[in-house]
Write a structure and sequence with these properties.
By secondary structure, this protein is α+β, with helices and mostly antiparallel strands. 36% of the residues lie in helices and 19% in strands. It has 15 helices and 16 strands. The strands form four sheets. Strands 1, 2, 3, 4, 5, 12, 13, 14, 15 and 16 form a ten-stranded mixed β-sheet that branches. It is globular and about 80 Å long.
């Protein structure tokens, strides 16, 4: 709970989430971040020089985007005098950027901060393996033709075996499991069936389709590529998703006994999201709108083998600090890394033994109603660009609170490596 100044979310925007389709997508991470931020800054009619800093979460910036926050800030025309820095907390990088800005404003170190997240997962690098790197190093150091020929003779076909960064990035090196295998562990621990996972996934697509039809995703900004094509919606949505279609998919991680498939997992996606955060003084001075206030945040650590349980470990301390029960929170956003991961979190809060053993509670927290959780879909239907999702769910939760004239909401994510993050928002107008 912040003991400092009040911090407001003034406004925010995001790109459409663009599904990776086996090739490099049309936008780099920098392009996505610029495309999401430029309309936001324009409509606020706020001089970029008034910003105290820019913070951007990203897990895998491009090779030309070292400290991508600074690259993007300068591309946006933000003055060179405004510092910018990049944060990385795997799946919660976008939420970490907002949390960093929140604490800087609450402590009085800043008044206006542009914070967000971005990931172009389709641009994840394919690398040379160590043998190839060493061979190339020898070749570059060779000074004579004879030396070069000797080194060329050492070349072997195995040198061409690529290192696919995305696969390693989605694998926990400590426990030796990829993220899908950790989801299978949760399914086993809570007896979550394939049918339950697929039902959750169908519902996610249906909710996103409804939200798009109703115009409830107003935070999306249209992107235009170099060829004049435009992108105005989350293109991974399958409005025709059905139990019958999902049942045809084979397990993706545990081929023999598993239940986690590509259809009940988050999509590999490119996207960006931003929010502008302000102190009370900045809101008054610049006559800024207020979308929501940030009331609290929490980070938690847990066993990497069940990293998907992170949300309950992060949300529980917030609930305790504020003495909240389930009914005190109007809406919830739990990032859908996997259907079974969200279902496992819901089950854990209803399980007395889990709450006592792992959360230091005396009894179960209770059941989050489905009609108040991820009401406009989530990562299953619109994708999970890892660096961006934390910012996206915070922004969208603030939008939901305003749309529904509701008071309070919690956004949360699981984090690869065994962590969880959560943020408590309030609608000041409710």
């Amino acid at each position: 709970m912040s003991a400092g100044r009040k911090v407001y979310i003034v406004d925010g925007s995001r790109t459409p989430q663009l599904k990776s389709r086996g090739k490099i997508g049309p936008f780099s991470a920098g392009d996505l971040a610029v495309g999401a931020a430029r309309p936001l800054l324009s409509r606020l009619a706020l001089s970029p020089g008034l910003l105290d800093e820019v913070i951007l979460g990203c897990m895998m910036p491009g090779e030309r985007e070292a400290n991508i926050a600074r690259v993007v800030a300068l591309r946006l025309g933000i003055p060179q005098t405004v510092p910018a820095w990049t944060v990385q907390r795997n799946c919660a990088s976008g939420m970490q950027s907002i949390d960093s800005a929140y604490h800087n404003i609450a402590s009085g170190r800043a008044n206006l901060v542009l914070a967000g997240g971005v990931e172009a997962m389709s641009h994840a690098p394919v690398l040379y393996n160590p043998a190839m790197v060493n061979w190339l190093g020898e070749l570059m150091r060779a000074r004579s033709l004879t030396q070069r020929l000797q080194i060329v003779s050492k070349f072997r076909p195995g040198h061409l075996k690529p290192v696919i960064a995305l696969i390693f990035g989605l694998t926990d090196d400590i426990v030796g499991l990829n993220m899908g295998e950790t989801a299978e562990n949760i399914a086993t621990n809570f007896n979550i069936s394939r049918q339950q996972m697929d039902e959750f996934s169908v519902r996610s697509h249906q909710r996103l389709a409804r939200a798009l039809d109703a115009g409830d995703l107003e935070e999306i900004e249209v992107l235009y590529d170099a060829n004049g094509n435009f992108y105005d919606h989350d293109d991974g949505m399958r409005a025709d998703s059905s139990m019958e279609n999902l049942a045809k998919l084979r397990p993706a991680f545990d081929k023999k006994y598993g239940s986690v498939t590509a259809g009940n997992s988050a999509q590999i996606t490119d996207g960006a999201a931003w929010v502008l955060l302000a102190s009370e003084e900045a809101v008054a001075s610049h006559n800024l709108p207020v979308l929501a206030s940030i009331q609290d945040s929490q980070w938690a650590g847990l066993d990497p083998a069940v990293m998907g349980m992170g949300p309950v470990h992060a949300m529980t301390p917030i609930m305790q600090r504020h003495q909240f029960g389930i009914d005190d929170v109007d809406f919830w956003e739990i990032n859908e890394a996997f259907a079974t991961q969200v279902l496992g979190c819901l089950s854990a809060w209803q399980d007395d033994d889990y709450c006592r053993t792992h959360l230091n509670l005396t009894q179960a927290v209770g059941e989050i109603p489905q009609d108040r959780l991820n009401i406009d879909g989530g990562g299953i239907s619109l994708g999970h660009p890892v660096g961006a999702s934390g910012a996206r769910i915070v922004l969208h939760l603030a939008k939901i609170l305003n749309r529904k004239q509701a008071k309070r909401g919690i956004a949360s994510l699981c984090i690869g490596g065994g962590q969880g993050g959560a943020m408590l928002l309030e609608n000041e107008a409710a």
